[in-house]
Every structure is written in C-alpha cells, then in structure tokens.
Design a protein that fits this description.
Blueprint lengths: L6 H87 L3 H12 L4 E9 L2 E8 L2 H13 L3 E14 L2 E12 L14 H5 L1
Antiparallel strand pairs: 1-2, 2-4, 3-4
C-alpha cells in the first residue's frame, strides 16, 4: 500500500490561509481607515462649511445691528428736528400775538382803570391795576369776555387801596388767550362797549 504524507501540503495550505487572513485583515484595516478618513474629512469639510456660513451670518448680523443703530439714531434726530420745527412753527404762528394782546387791551380797558402789571404764563395772562370804582372792573371784564383775542376773565381779588392820597380799588384778574379763533375774527367790528372805551 502506498502512503502519502499530506502534512506538508496541509501545513502549506494553513500558512497560505493565514497569509490570506493577515492580508485580508490588513486590507480591511486599511479600507476601514480610508473610509474613516474619508468620513472624517467629509464631516470636517461640512463643519468648516457650516462654520463659514455661521461666520458670514454673524458678520451680516453685525452689519444689520449697525444699520439698526443708525436707523434708530436717524429716527431720534428726525424726531428732534420735527420737535424743533413744531416749536418754530408755533412761535412763527404766534409771533404777533403779544402785539394783538396789547392792542386789544388798549381798546378794552375803560376810562378810570389803570393797569400796573401784566404777566403771561402760557395762555394765561394776569392783569393787576387800580380802578376808581368796582363797576369799572365789571365793565373791563365784560369787554374782555367779548374780545375775539381774549376769553374767560376771572376776578381773583379786589381790595381798597390808596394811590396818590386818593382812595381807589386795587384788583387782580386772570384772562386767557383765545388761539382757536381764525384771523378773520380779528377784523370784526368793535362791540358797543369797546367803542365807548
């Protein structure tokens, strides 16, 4: 009977399988490393791209914040200018008011009434003076009430006083400037009480 020794052949086959296993393992490791590196580089590029987008958005937000601050500053300046314009327009529209008031007072103060002081605070005017009789103060108040420039006369105080060794009455009254009337009302004819004064 012929005996064949297959041990070296089996040993060689094992060695070849081992080599194939090692080669396959190394190839798998290298493939896994290449895939991991590819995934890592892909993720890194996405992260860098996202970071670039974030930086761009931050820079644009910073620009918009500057624009918003500039718009807010311009709005404040516009509001300040509008306030100044309104004050100037108000002063412009009422610049002749003092002249009209003095003119009107000169027409309305009856004979026997002497004004010693005129104070204005806003629309309120305080008149103080002397009169020969209380009836003349009543006439003055009726004249003021009928005026197109002045309104709502209110007697604050009337008391006995002495002026140049003569007995008189000292009075204080408040009136208000009428601004709601149109300019055509200033030209209407004088009332009968105004003509008498």
């Amino acid at each position: 009977m012929i005996r064949i020794n297959l041990l070296p052949h089996r040993e060689e086959a094992r060695r070849q399988r081992r080599q194939q296993f090692y080669v396959l393992a190394v190839a798998t490791l290298i493939g896994g490393a290449v895939i991991a590196l590819a995934v890592h580089s892909f993720n890194q590029s996405r992260i860098e791209s996202q970071q670039a987008d974030n930086d761009f958005l931050k820079s644009e937000i910073a620009k918009l914040d500057k624009d918003i601050a500039e718009i807010k500053r311009l709005k404040e300046q516009t509001q300040a200018l509008l306030s100044r314009k309104q004050v100037i327009e108000q002063l412009q529209s009422h610049r002749a008011e003092t002249v009209h008031i003095f003119n009107e007072l000169a027409k309305l103060v009856p004979e026997g009434v002497f004004l010693k002081g005129i104070k204005q605070a806003g629309l309120k005017i305080t008149l103080s003076g002397y009169t020969q009789s209380n009836a003349r103060v009543s006439t003055l108040m009726r004249n003021l009430d009928a005026s197109p420039v002045l309104e709502r006369p209110v007697l604050i105080e009337i008391k006995a006083a002495e002026l140049n060794k003569r007995r008189v009455s000292e009075f204080t009254l408040d009136i208000y400037v009428e601004r709601a009337k149109s300019e055509t009302d200033d030209k209407k004819p004088a009332t009968p009480t105004e003509k008498k004064s």
